[in-house]
């Protein structure tokens, strides 16, 4: 297990480096492949030795080697966060057929959260292909485990969460973006594959945390009643939390009524 977690953490650092490119370029409609990473100050290509996740930023003290332009601290933060989350997911899921699927969820969660916070959008370029990628990865997971009920549950979860968000979008126009609706289907697939408790807990936490944070921002004058607060990060936080603790939280809640979670 230690080896798996370590390798996953290293993979996460590398993926985090790529996610920085995704976060910067995808909202602008630019390719994430070409051109290679360049300094925004002098436009010189980033050397390979200066592109080592986290370490290069520390060695260069957050500045370009050539022109001294400052490099945002968010770059190493995204890399480190992705590495830590990959390690945590590997520890939670273990060496299983489902691990690639939930590592992919982790990667898009980091990228989409950062983009939504930046530009208040959840780009179709990431969300829509995730339906296909997620479906294939969860299909492979069910093939490997022989748990076809989990796959059926994933499909039901995806459709159900998509329908709930679409209904909220129609009933209260402007309350959330249509990107949130599209993302809901992807998250429903992941949470449904794990179980009904994870699906319900993940959906509930998104609104709970989003509501608490929004009230806090208004109370402290950081936002007004009509301010647009990106909801995607709360959806993703709720989903990732449910991956780790959804079953336990579901069991705890129904236990309050003397029942047992399915």
UniProtKB/TrEMBL annotation:
Its EC number is 2.1.1.-, 3.4.23.43. It catalyses: Typically cleaves a -Gly-|-Phe- bond to release an N-terminal, basic peptide of 5-8 residues from type IV prepilin, and then N-methylates the new N-terminal amino group, the methyl donor being S-adenosyl-L-methionine. It is found in: Cell inner membrane; Cell membrane. One of its GO terms (molecular function) is hydrolase activity. The chain crosses the membrane at residues 84-113, 125-144, 150-171, 202-221, 233-254. It is a multi-pass membrane protein. The keyword rRNA-binding does not apply. This is Prepilin leader peptidase/N-methyltransferase. It comes from Kineococcus mangrovi.
């Amino acid at each position: 297990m230690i080896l798996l977690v370590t390798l996953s953490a290293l993979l996460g650092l590398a993926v985090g480096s790529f996610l920085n490119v995704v976060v910067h370029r995808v909202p602008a409609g630019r390719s994430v492949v070409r051109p290679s990473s360049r300094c925004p100050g002098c436009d010189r290509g980033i050397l390979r030795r200066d592109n080592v996740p986290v370490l290069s930023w520390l060695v260069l003290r957050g500045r370009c080697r050539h022109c001294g332009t400052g490099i945002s601290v968010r770059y190493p933060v995204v890399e480190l966060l992705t590495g830590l989350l990959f390690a945590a997911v590997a520890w939670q899921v273990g060496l299983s057929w489902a691990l690639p699927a939930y590592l992919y969820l982790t990667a898009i969660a980091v990228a989409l959260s950062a983009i939504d916070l930046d530009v208040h959008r959840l780009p179709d370029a990431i969300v829509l292909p995730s339906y296909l990628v997620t479906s294939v990865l969860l299909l492979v997971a069910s093939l490997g485990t022989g748990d076809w009920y989990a796959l059926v549950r994933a499909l039901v979860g995806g459709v159900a969460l998509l329908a709930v968000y679409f209904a909220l979008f129609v009933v209260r126009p402007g309350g959330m973006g249509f990107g949130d609706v599209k993302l809901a289907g992807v998250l429903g697939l992941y949470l449904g594959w794990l179980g009904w408790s994870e699906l319900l807990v993940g959906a509930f936490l998104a609104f709970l945390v989003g509501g608490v944070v929004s009230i806090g921002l208004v109370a402290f004058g950081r936002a007004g009643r009509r301010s647009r607060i990106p909801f995607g990060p709360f959806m993703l936080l709720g989903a990732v939390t449910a991956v780790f603790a959804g079953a336990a939280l579901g069991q705890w809640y129904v236990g309050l009524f003397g029942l047992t979670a399915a």
